[in-house]
From TrEMBL, chains A, B:
It comes from Paractinoplanes brasiliensis. This is NADPH-dependent 2,4-dienoyl-CoA reductase/sulfur reductase-like enzyme. SUPFAM superfamilies: FAD/NAD(P)-binding domain, FAD/NAD-linked reductases, dimerisation (C-terminal) domain. Belongs to the class-III pyridine nucleotide-disulfide oxidoreductase family. The keyword Hydrolase does not apply. Residues 2-302 form the FAD/NAD(P)-binding domain. The keyword Oxidoreductase applies. It holds the Pfam family Pyr_redox_2. Keywords: FAD, Flavoprotein, Oxidoreductase, Redox-active center. Residues 334-436 form the Pyridine nucleotide-disulphide oxidoreductase dimerisation domain. GO terms for molecular function: oxidoreductase activity. Its cofactor is FAD.
Length: 456, 456
């Protein structure tokens, strides 16, 4: 059997590795086409490399092409797949280093083409200091740009989601003057509720980032092949480097051309085993697929490395003759802005409303450790619970050290459709160095329970 | 109506406060009898006060008697209840300051007498430097003893459970030479499996504690009203202060005398609303009660502040005319030995075996953050899953910073009877500063799933 994988990052290589684990080279030949220079890297780590916390690019690579090859996976870097022929069951790939075209037959195909940054027409300028942050090649390009003489001094980051805030911080750490433009009234508007986003905004400003909200961009000014400014209705912002953090969309051009089904979110549709719906022997995984939101029951596109790894693993196990499923997501995410930790799971108020839920919210302030224990830090937890049933629909945490990872307990509670009243009895860990005697999660559950009762 | 509460710490005062919140002074008179000098204190914080991390005893007091009195709760300190008359529905209390006897009638009674340290016959010496660590008065006595001249220099801690290891560390921080005696082959033998306990032992030795395992105590040597040594079969250990960490038992002497039902674990039996079984208007909560272990379905005695607070709150809500239940526990606990974090939930291997489960275990080593992110620390996670069904029965974590609180996600999973295979799909938070792309919890679930498959 022959397995061909399109895309050599998290999803594709997890699929390849899991399939290889189950089937030896005599039973399965595996060929991976990767457009860039790297395999199995942490795109999520790019801001930390740019910012200097991670000293070396290669540390972001979990497994090199050579390591994969040693495991019996034929990795072809700088090869871009330009066509999928489902009738002949082969893919057509271009060697980007100038070596012509390859046609590779497959019995199984994994489509792991990832996502592409949303790039407005005005931002489509090449080699001018305008960057998306999607691949390690993107990261390398930014790194190189920042090292060029004359050194960029002013950065404009467009979009205040994860990538935007992380890259803004990275640029500050590199010594640049940074302006963040966010079209909403506060950063992380898709991630957390406005009251929580306001805390992020405060933290970013304390870090020295100029945050412009309700901001729009008309275009860029370039000169001598370099970006010079970002043009907004409110004025022109000088910029030596521009980072796009306006979101991503599934990279499905090839998939659509081949007739693979694409869902309402724009991602390739798969079943629970990551098999492309209705197409025998074709699998998809990672940022290019649509998945299911387990709390709304509706399709969702959530491009995160953690899902890509899980989905790729599931595809690979199934290709290898095993059985595994990826049931869906509940919207958990976490990030860090300076020393402010931000986490969420489930639905924000806006998302819950859009899904048709009637709900109550409750916010509490508490501490990471017993109040009397050294190092106790404040945190705010907000819960969203369905009216009447009290089912936990969402949770958000903003705090300092030891705050954000508490989201996992809330994620498991939401995954299991617990009510906030049931949650008040949860046997969570307590000792003074780790929590007040009522963990903030329990305090929040208590307050949300009261809100549910009041809503009856 | 009249509510009388026996015991003014977590359980009793939570009950009193919740009842007061729902019923004003015209509807409910509340009298609390407390034998000691303090109310609503964190007994769990005592080792940190002794060790110096918490500078001031009063920081351990969440609410003082005066604060409770202001809220309309008649707190009588230094009053020991010596009898409960269920027929006349009154309690008899002695004023320990010498003021005679009070008889106090009640409509509702909350029994919150706590627990008492297991104290062998040879350890029953008064004012000689031998201490349990159960009440803040105990803590004060230890603190005073360590400040006496000539200053104690050598401490022996008997018992390597939470209290033992925490007090051993506290004594080291106070500059004493510390020996810990543990009857099992490693410390924390009731808390974690031997392989995890071995890691604790290593950490304690690194801290400078002499850990003697498989150790027994024959008695004490005293001279001039002070302890001088601990006598063991292996020799005599000089000691200027001895701390007992041999466990606690429910303080039920009064309850038994009054005919309140006591279960097989020695704790007072209650229903889910914390009403003493079969006795109208009498409630019990905290370290003196028996609860239900939700994974074994069997009675359990788990004396922890977090349960005491929850149970007291539930009793108070019900007394106040509301509705709340305490469904039981799953055995979650956490502690810290120097910079080693130790956490558990569910059952240990020994407990799972005793309950009749056939099970598999899986241990993984991973890191708290992405391996390339600064500050990533190693941790070990061990899972115990039922054979065939794969239901999560227990989890243990030993690691450095940011390790232990991950137990909460596992506790919520166990609470909801998830299988380890279901857990591999959990949507836990990921970003490089918070986890590797596969959170250690997920890696452990994957490995445990393989072990379950292998057990089929």
């Amino acid at each position: 059997m022959r397995l061909v994988v399109i895309g050599g990052d998290a999803a594709g290589m997890s699929a390849a590795s899991q399939a290889r684990k189950r089937l030896g080279e005599d039973d399965l030949a595996i060929t991976v086409f990767e457009r860039g220079h790297f395999t199995s890297y942490s795109a999520c780590g790019i801001p930390y490399w740019i910012g200097g916390a991670v000293p070396d690019r290669d540390k972001l690579v979990a497994r090199t092409p050579e390591e994969h090859r040693k495991a019996g996976i034929d990795v072809r870097l700088r090869h871009e797949v330009v066509g999928i022929d489902l009738d002949r069951r082969e893919v057509v790939a271009h060697d980007l280093t100038g070596g012509g075209e390859t046609r590779e037959p497959f019995d199984h195909l994994v489509y792991g083409a990832g996502a592409v940054p949303v790039t407005p027409e005005w931002a489509r300028v090449r080699d001018a200091g305008v960057f998306g942050v999607q691949t390690l090649d993107d990261g390398q390009a930014i790194h190189d740009w920042l090292d060029r003489e004359p050194r960029p001094r002013r950065a404009v980051v467009i979009g205040g989601g994860y990538i935007g805030v992380e890259m803004a911080e990275a640029m500050v750490l590199r010594g640049l003057d940074v302006t963040l433009l966010e079209k909403s009234p506060q950063p992380m508007a898709k991630t957390v509720d406005p009251d929580m986003g306001a805390l992020v905004q405060k933290s970013m400003r304390a870090l020295g980032v100029e945050v412009l909200t309700d901001a729009h961009v008309d275009g860029l000014e370039t000169a001598d092949g370099r970006v010079r400014a970002v043009v907004t209705p409110g004025g022109t912002l000088p910029a030596d480097v521009v980072v796009l953090g306006m979101g991503v969309r599934p990279n499905t051009a090839l998939a659509r051309e081949a007739g693979l089904p694409v869902g309402p979110t724009g991602g390739v549709r798969t079943d629970l085993r990551m098999r492309v719906e209705g197409v025998e022997g074709v699998w998809a995984a990672g940022d290019c697929v649509e998945t299911q939101h387990l709390l709304t029951g509706r399709p969702a596109h959530v491009p995160l490395g953690t899902h890509a790894n899980k989905q790729g693993r599931v595809a690979g196990i199934n290709i290898g003759g095993g059985y595994a499923t990826f049931p869906g997501v509940i919207g958990t995410a976490v990030t860090k802005v300076c020393d402010l930790e931000v986490a969420r799971t489930g639905l924000t108020s806006k998302e819950a409303h859009a899904a048709g839920f009637s709900f109550v919210t409750a916010s509490v302030d508490s501490t990471s450790r017993a109040g009397y224990y050294p190092g106790a830090e404040m945190m705010t937890i907000k819960l969203i619970a369905e009216r009447r049933t009290g089912v936990l629909l969402g949770a958000q945490i903003v705090g300092r050290a030891e705050a954000a990872k508490r989201i996992d307990a809330l994620a498991v509670a939401a995954w299991n459709r617990m009510t906030v009243e049931e949650m008040t009895a949860l046997d969570l860990s307590y000792a003074p160095p780790f929590a007040p005697v009522w963990d903030p999660v329990l305090i929040a559950a208590r307050k949300a329970t009261e809100a549910v009762h009041a809503s009856l």
